[in-house]
Specification:
Layout: H1 12-20, H2 26-32, H3 38-48, E1 56-60, H4 66-73, E2 77-81, H5 85-94, E3 99-101, E4 115-121, H6 129-139, E5 140-153, H7 158-170, H8 184-188, E6 194-207, H9 208-216, H10 219-222, H11 226-243, E7 248-261
Parallel strand pairs: 1-2, 1-4, 2-3, 4-5
Antiparallel strand pairs: 5-7, 6-7
Helix pairs in contact: 2-9, 7-11, 9-11
Length: 264
Amino acid sequence: MAEHSGAVNRPSSDFRKLAESFGGVAAEYDRARPSYPQELFDELERLSGRGLRGARVLDVGAGTGISTRLLAGRGADVVGVEPSAGMAARFLASGPGLALVRGSGDDLPFHDRSADFVTYAQAFHWTDPERSVPEAVRVLRPGGALAAWWNVKDTGVAWVRAMGERLAAALSESYHGYGAIDEFASHLAPYGLRTGHTVLHWERRITVDHLITDLTSRSYLAALTPDRRAPLLAVEREALLAEFPDGWVIEPYVLDLTVAVTPA
């Protein structure tokens, strides 16, 4: 899923509204969201101490299947877990042959000790850690790994930082970054898990139109009515074309990965 920070104190109805907004932009999400470099999965194997090939993986909050397809490409026996009907439909259309179960990380519909990995790609922050962490521990086999990762636009780059500042000013009631990343490890501490962490840097070359479609799929914009969303996107398009007059953008990412391994 996307970019809400679980650390933010907000009414549960607002949280649900943002979470439910993804179903209506599933096509945009699948078409425009960034993928992940293969180095991520190399690091996942290194930090977990086990290979993905042949491993049973539950990819929770799978969305349209961006990470699920990559995990399958590494030879994993992977099942996507997704609560949104709209996202699930796009998952099945984009990844024929991949398994999908409707469900959430707070109540995993799987037996105890039935998985080698439980993964969250852009999704852990949509869970209640007091429920999702013990659920992951429950379904993991001894020596299994809980892994969460986030692609975050690199705010060390001026145009990325400026875009975030504009959106934050325009959407003060709903715009949020990825503050929950910093808290993720603290939710693991009570369970005696061995944790590892790494940060990767990568970039993609996309058009301005592609970037605008990506923004459309972000919860803080997807949850708006079209008449409110359109002028905000128009402002971003104008700013981006001023920065990139040829219409092409080099979009930098910081990829944050944490892996927690259960006792063998």
